[in-house]
């Protein structure tokens, strides 16, 4: 059995993890595609509702500290997350600058201009707030605080990190390099900080980056399409 220096016990056993993921992949995902494919709201948020229910059950069995919300080293962990997320967002500016400086902007593939027609109505603002604040919190508690921790306690850290990336990329059938990278990075941040703060901030930064690409840097869609 693998052990490590994490001072928080996992909230979920490996058998509970297998059962939880099996229900999600074999029942929840197919079910929402069959029954809710014509109804946007349930189709979009069924996953998050399932994750939230599991989180509530995990909290009932343990506590919020075990899930990754210890205040030990809080300032350092917040800085790590902010630095990681900030670097990712800044890289979008650099990539856009690179398109101009290398002459790629003259190519038809990079003719997209900033989208000034994006709706700023109440529904759009709520949707963006959900993408940046709510979804990262729920998904990181579920995938990193619960699923990754249970793997981390039983197998080698490297295998657990890569497995977490694969599991996250399977969620919602995203199956992309970007989803895999997000799963790997947030798991690594959890291993490094032993809390979820950095992972949540980095995930939220990725969401902000996605919105920025949609609104301000649409040309990057072509450059980064292999990731999505």
Description:
By secondary structure, the protein is mainly α. It has one domain (14-227). Helix content is 69%, strand content 0%. The chain is built from eight helices and no strands. Helix 4 (122-152) packs antiparallel against helix 7 (197-215). The longest helix has 31 residues, at 122-152. It is globular.
What is this structure, in a nutshell?
The protein has 228 residues and is mostly helical.
Would you spell out the secondary-structure blueprint of this structure?
Elements (H helix, E strand, L loop, with lengths): L13 H22 L4 H22 L12 H28 L20 H31 L4 H14 L6 H17 L3 H19 L4 H4 L5
Helix pairs in contact: 1-2, 2-4, 3-7, 4-5, 4-6, 4-7, 5-6, 6-7
Search tags:
about 230 residues; mainly alpha; about 70% helix; about 0% strand; globular
Biggest sheet details: none
If you average the pLDDT, what whole number results?
A: 86
Distance between the termini: 36 Å
| Whole-number tally of structural domains | 1
């Amino acid at each position: 059995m693998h052990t490590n220096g994490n001072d928080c016990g996992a909230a979920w056993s490996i058998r509970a993890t297998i059962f939880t993921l099996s229900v999600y992949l074999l029942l929840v995902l197919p079910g929402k595609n069959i029954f809710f494919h014509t109804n946007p709201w349930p189709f979009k948020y069924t996953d998050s509702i399932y994750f939230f229910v599991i989180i509530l059950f995990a909290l009932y069995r343990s506590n919020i500290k075990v899930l990754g919300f210890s205040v030990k080293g809080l300032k350092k962990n917040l800085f790590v997350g902010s630095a990681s997320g900030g670097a990712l967002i800044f890289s979008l500016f650099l990539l856009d600058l690179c398109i101009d400086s290398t002459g790629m902007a003259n190519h038809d593939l990079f003719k997209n201009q900033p989208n000034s027609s994006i709706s700023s109505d109440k529904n759009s603002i709520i949707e963006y707030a959900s993408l940046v604040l709510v979804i990262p919190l729920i998904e990181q508690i579920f995938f990193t605080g619960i699923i990754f921790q249970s793997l981390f306690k039983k197998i080698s850290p490297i295998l657990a990190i890569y497995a977490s990336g694969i599991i996250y990329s399977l969620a919602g059938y995203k199956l992309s390099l970007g989803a895999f990278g997000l799963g790997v990075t947030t798991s690594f941040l959890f291993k490094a900080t032993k809390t979820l703060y950095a992972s949540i901030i980095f995930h939220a930064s990725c969401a902000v980056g996605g919105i920025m690409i949609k609104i301000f840097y649409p040309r990057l869609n072509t450059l980064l399409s292999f990731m999505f």
